[in-house]
Amino acid sequence: MTPELPSDVADALGLLLGTGDATHQALRRQVPHLRISARCTCGCGTTYFDLDADSVPAAPSPAGTVVVAQAQLFDAEEDWIGEVLAFARNGYLTWLEVCSITDSPLTLTEALRMLRSSGVSGTSGDHG
Ligand SMILES: [Zn+2]
Fold first, then answer.
1. For 37-60, what is each residue's pLDDT tens digit?
2. Is residue 71 a part of any domain in this protein?
3. Which is the most buried residue in 3, 21, 24, 101, by most CB within 10 A?
């Protein structure tokens, strides 16, 4: 039995991963199969995943660990305060990182609120 992914994690991945390219489409199909393996202990929203690689195909992303999606985070004054990054290893989602450039860590809830208010849709490094 696979416990369901928390909705904040699923929502963040849904916002980060677009629908326009094959890599993101394949990664989206992995989301229902993800389980949380660990969360960062510093208070930020960084979350590590477990995924049964037999249950879903790998995405066509480069071998090794790569950033497959990212979005910048801006506060209410539109100052850049961090970013959210999705990493995959060998084509499978492995972790979601919430980076803060300020002294206080950003939670996933805060990151989601900023992603939604900025209307971000997924970006990926390997196409224009
Ligand atoms: Zn942390």
1. 999 999 999 999 999 999 999 999
2. yes
3. 24
> What is the whole-number distance in angstroms between the Cα of residue 22 and the centre of ligand 1?
30
Q: Are residues 106 and 42 in contact, defined by beta-carbon separation less than 8 angstroms? A: no
| C-alpha dist (Å) from residue 5 to 9, 12, 13, 24 | 7, 11, 11, 18
13 falls within a domain: yes
Give the count of domains, the chain. Answer: 1
126 falls within a domain = no
Ligand 1 centroid from CA 40, angstroms: 5
Question: From ligand 1's centre to the CA of 41, what distance in Å?
Answer: 6
Task: Examine residue 123 and state whether it is found in any structural domain, yes or no.
Answer: no
